[in-house]
Amino acid sequence: MGDQDLPGVLVSDLEGPHGICEDHAEDLKRHFNLITMQDFLENKAQLGPQIQAVYIWCGRPAVSQELLHSLPSLKIVASAGAGLDHLDLGLMASFGVKVANTPHAVSSPTADLGMALLLAAARRVVEGHQLAVSPHTETFPTDYMGQQVTGATLGIIGMGSIGYKIAQRARAFEMKIVYHNRKRRKLEEEEAVGAIYCERLDDLLQWSDFVMLAVSLTPQTQGLIGKRELRLMKPTAILVNIGRGLLVDQEALVEALQTGLIKAAALDVTYPEPLPRDHPLLELKNVILTPHIGSATHQARRQMMENLVESILASLSGLPIPNEVLLK
Question: ∠ at Cα 215 (210, 216), nearest 5°?
Fold first, then answer.
């Protein structure tokens, strides 16, 4: 714990794989008295009333009804990232607790990674690297082929801030862009990136050479891509997921990749994370996996931290909260 005169903020830990970014600790300590989950659990009676905010980093600490009952002074839960699937917004609202996240800080780096995965899968970059460095390689095969990106059709599922930034990047590759979204974008926004709205998801899946999942996980989108949807895709199509693992039926995806129903997949997210070490996705050559690193740049992570600090300070001062999440 730090300066007792500063507002108490609950964090998962100050170090380690489940803690806050160690590089951010000193900045946070200038504004807050950081109370770790372990310290809190060991002394709930004294520390509970001191905590005015919960600072969630990489999904921790989890905010349960039991925790909320233990924090009578809590004003805000500030969560890094854009996803909200780990938060029960209705529960927090029932306790009068505000919620904020950091959608703008993550949109550009996540879009960058989406395009990186698309390009890597299309041109078989990981396989190519393994071939180039293998001690068994004596010659390079002349029939080592990938899929062309320029002029191909990209179907974006989820045209929020991340999806739109993907469209901006894809336009530079002269891709044809179609998208499916809960709400259609304004005409001028579509025209700016050359995007065509698909009211029916089935149409997008049938038309696209690349399908990019950039949609939030909700009860309505869980299992959005299953056996039926994969069968609608072209046999040359590549699926890219930068949203959440549960958007995709992974058993159906494994079967589709093994049988050639689709060409390949590039996944920054799975369920669970990490996958069990014997999971079949880990063995397939036509799969690229990254460890949920959409926002993992030094610059983005610092902006996320700064955005969370701004939201907490605004809440404690009774000011409008930047990036407040409103219950719909």
Answer: 155
**What pLDDT shows up at residue 39?**
97
Sign of the alpha-carbon torsion through 184, 188, 190, 196:
positive
User: In which region does residue 45 sit, left (phi positive, over 0), alpha (psi from -120 to 50) or beta (all else)?
Assistant: alpha
pLDDT tens per residue across span 229-288: 999 999 999 999 999 999 999 999 999 999 999 999 999 999 999 999 999 999 999 999
Q: What's the gap between Cα 226 and its chain centre?
A: 20
Amino acid identity, position 167: A
Peptide bond into 103 cis (omega under 30): no
18-69 pLDDT, tens digit per residue, is: 899 989 999 999 999 999 999 999 999 999 999 999 999 999 999 999 999 9
164, pLDDT greater than 70: yes
Confidence at residue 2, expressed as pLDDT on a 0 to 100 scale: 63
**184 catalytic per annotation:** no
Taking Cα atoms as reference points, which of 42, 43, 40, 45 lies closest to residue 54? 40
Q: HEC states along 231-300?
A: HHCCCCCEEEECCCHHHECHHHHHHHHHHCCCCEEEECCCCCCCCCCCCHHHCCCCEEECCCCCCCCHHH
Residue of 124, 169, 185, 244 with catalytic role: 244
Active-site option among 190, 292, 301, 310: 292
pLDDT exceeds 90 at position 209: yes
| Annotated catalytic residue 123 | no
Q: Is 66 a catalytic residue?
A: no
Indicate which residue of 273, 298, 310, 324 is catalytic: 273
